[in-house]
Amino acid sequence: MSKKIKLENTQDFMGKEIKVFKSDFEIYKHELSQEPYYSISLKNSHGGNNVWGGDSAWEDCYDKKLAQAVFNEWNGTLYHAGDKYGYTINP
């Protein structure tokens, strides 16, 4: 698993564990509710293709500092969590 993959859709299966370019991801601010919440998502996906967060029912997603810390600590490895969820930062 040394070669990085250019991921275009977090639902596309590319292997159980993959390494991606962190520069292809961003912390996205979802403003659909009264209080904004955050996700780590593929750039230009408008908050779709999340690999962390993006769930208004998950309290951690409302903490921008936590989202930034998760992003900073993330080494670019993604784990496939099944067809329903696609890839995530945590196995």
Fraction of residues in H or I helices? 10-25%
Query: What structural class do the secondary elements suggest?
Result: mainly beta
* Terminal CA distance: 16 Å
Helix and strand run: EEEEEHEE
What percent of residues are in strands? 25-35%
Average pLDDT taken over every residue: 93
> Main β-sheet, in a few words?
4 strands, mixed
Shape: globular
The order of strands across the largest sheet is 1-2-6-7
Unreliable stretches? none
The gyration radius over C-alpha positions equals 13 Å
Total of helices: 1
Summarize the structure.
The chain contains one helix and seven strands, in the order βββββαββ. By secondary structure, it is mainly beta. The longest helix has 10 residues, at 64-73.
What topology emerges from the helices and strands here?
Layout: E1 4-5, E2 17-20, E3 25-30, E4 37-42, E5 50-53, H1 64-73, E6 77-80, E7 87-88
Parallel strand pairs: 1-2
Antiparallel strand pairs: 2-6, 3-4, 4-5, 6-7
Fold and architecture overview:
The chain is mostly beta strands. The chain has one domain (4-88). Helices cover 11% and strands 31% of the residues. It is built from one helix and seven strands; from the N terminus they run E-E-E-E-E-H-E-E. The chain has one helix at 64-73, and strands at 4-5, 17-20, 25-30, 37-42, 50-53, 77-80, 87-88. It has a four-stranded mixed beta sheet with strand order 1-2-6-7, with no helix packed on it. A three-stranded antiparallel beta sheet has the order 3-4-5, covered by helices on one side. It is globular, with a radius of gyration of 13 Å. The mean pLDDT is 93.
